[in-house]
Design a protein that fits this description.
It is a peripheral membrane protein. This protein is α/β, with parallel strands linked by helices. It is about 30% helix and about 25% strand.
Length: about 500
């Protein structure tokens, strides 16, 4: 690093307040040109607020932003983009029915006269793809791309707009190990071309592998910087949360002989007749965690929807305990002991503008403490929400706080607390620790382990391969809607599992 060269990004004394909370306080950040600079911190530490400030989504109350040594004021993301700042969000913002070309140029279309100049757009995208080894075909429909390729489209979008500093928010959250390696190869190409990457992640081993330097944020302020070459993941975790890095490894087997869920020939079809879930059969016993692995888009979400009663079956049966529940409503399934941690907490798990006590009763509105007689029991719901907040470490001012004011990790802990409080016979846990920090992750893992030990059956769907291997008693792999492998987690590596998920592994494994 050239010590005399101006920094790509420098934040000095950044403070940002919201009603009732100081999200960032006196933040300092120094990012050299041409480096991958990681920012780590637990949920609610202020990382997202800081990056939104840098990207012009809101203005700081105090402090200043310098880009290449020059003080700037961003009033909108357009100002940040004009200054060379681009952001790739954790949740991709792509139109499936558009091509790569149409997604990349949208909003910045090259024109010839009044018409879209597709040839020029195609030329520029191919140039970007070749220059940074992105491997993109401008004419491919986005709906035909895998998760890793979609992420590269998002990177191409910001490069197309001239970004020289890229903010990547949790870029590996949904990638298998092979795709993570490909992404890191892409980042190496960006560095070689002199671009700068700000890399936000909860996966500390990955941070140490890809980053040139690390800034640690805790409770809204910077607590230090670290050299990934000399700092262990455990040391980073301690800087972040004051505790060692948790592991998902389970204790001794608690599997009992009693089946709690049996799927036989479960098939779910798309409107055109194509099988989204293809003849799936599996059994979950009391005290057993059955993991389901697969690259996103291979039928896991549709299988979860079918078990929850959100999608009709084209064929097969779903037996909960001794009852075939295939024709039951979602409400009846919930009342008979089916718990649900949804994949997308914002779309399926919460009402963001509603207070926490109202979110506590979602899905449980026919049972105490949500009701007394025929009416909602507001007092009881508030009191139980306060209990969940204490027992599950949900950090918020109180039960009347709007859910939108909580960090992602605290939102997730509220959902987990809500579902566990109903003592379900079977818990469907879809990506239960996605986008949460090591502290919240540790809490959720321990809750799942405790529930398993008490006899709860758990179906675990996750993109975190260490989580799947560590928590599962039995592990199935889904590919194109079908179960293609049943594996023994005790003798499995993430690389082997990733190979099965992409179809490169053998189609049978040790059960």
């Amino acid at each position: 690093m050239n010590e005399s060269a101006p920094l790509a990004v420098e934040l000095r004394g950044i403070t940002k307040r919201f009603p009732g909370v100081v999200a960032n306080k006196d933040i300092e950040l120094r990012v050299a040109r041409g480096e991958v600079h990681a920012i780590v911190g637990e949920n609610g530490a202020g990382k997202s607020t800081l990056m939104k400030t840098l990207y012009g989504m809101h203005r700081p109350d105090e402090g200043e932003i310098l880009i290449d040594g020059r003080a700037v004021t961003f009033r909108s993301p357009a100002d940040a983009i004009a200054a060379g700042i681009g952001m790739v969000h954790q949740h991709f913002m792509l139109a499936d029915n558009f091509t790569v070309l149409e997604n990349v140029v949208l909003g910045s279309e090259p024109t010839r006269g009044v018409r879209l100049d597709r040839a020029e757009g195609r030329r520029r995208i191919r140039d970007i793809s070749d220059r940074y080894s992105l491997g993109l075909d401008p004419d491919t429909l986005v709906e035909d791309l895998g998760v890793g390729d979609r992420q590269r489209v998002e990177i191409a979008k910001v490069l197309y707009r001239g970004a020289t500093t890229l903010i990547l928010d949790e870029p590996t959250a949904v990638l298998v190990p092979q795709e993570v390696d490909e992404l890191f190869g892409n980042l190496a190409e960006l560095k070689r071309e002199g671009l700068t990457v700000i890399f936000i992640s909860h996966k500390l081993d990955e941070v140490r592998k890809v980053a040139d330097s690390i800034t640690v944020i805790r409770r809204g302020t910077t607590v230090g910087t670290a050299d990934p070459a000399t700092t262990s993941a455990k040391q980073l975790a301690e800087l972040m949360v004051g505790a060692e890095l948790p592991t998902p490894q389970t204790r001794t087997s608690t599997v009992r002989d009693v089946p709690v869920l049996q799927l036989r020939g479960v098939t779910v079809s798309a409107p055109g007749g194509r099988a989204l879930v293809d003849d799936v059969s599996l059994t979950v016993r009391e005290g057993e965690v059955v993991g389901i692995a697969g690259v996103e888009g291979n039928g896991q979400a549709e299988l979860v929807d079918a078990v929850m009663g959100l999608r009709p079956l084209a064929a097969g049966s779903i037996v909960l305990g001794a009852d075939d529940i295939a024709t039951w409503s979602t409400r009846r399934r919930r009342e008979q002991g089916l718990g649900f941690i949804p994949e997308d907490r914002h779309r399926q798990g919460m009402l963001l503008d509603a207070p926490l006590w109202e979110n506590r009763i979602l899905g449980h509105q026919t049972r105490p403490p949500a009701v007394k007689g025929a009416f909602i029991d507001r007092k009881g719901a508030r009191a139980d929400t306060a209990r969940i907040m204490r027992e599950y470490d949900v950090r918020a001012p109180g039960p009347d706080t709007a859910a939108v004011a909580l960090s992602g990790g605290n939102q997730q802990k509220l959902i987990v607390g809500r579902e566990m409080s109903a003592s379900p016979r079977l818990l469907i846990a879809a990506h239960p620790t996605r986008g949460v920090d090591v502290g919240a992750q540790s809490v959720i893992w321990e809750l799942l382990k405790d529930a398993r030990a008490e006899g709860m059956g758990i179906v675990l769907v996750s993109a975190d391969l260490d989580e799947l291997i560590g928590l599962s008693d039995t592990l199935h792999v889904m590919l194109r809607g079908a179960l293609v492998a049943t594996l023994d987690p005790a003798s499995l590596t993430p690389e082997e599992l990733g190979s099965h998920m992409t179809g490169a592994g053998s189609t049978a494994g040790a059960a």
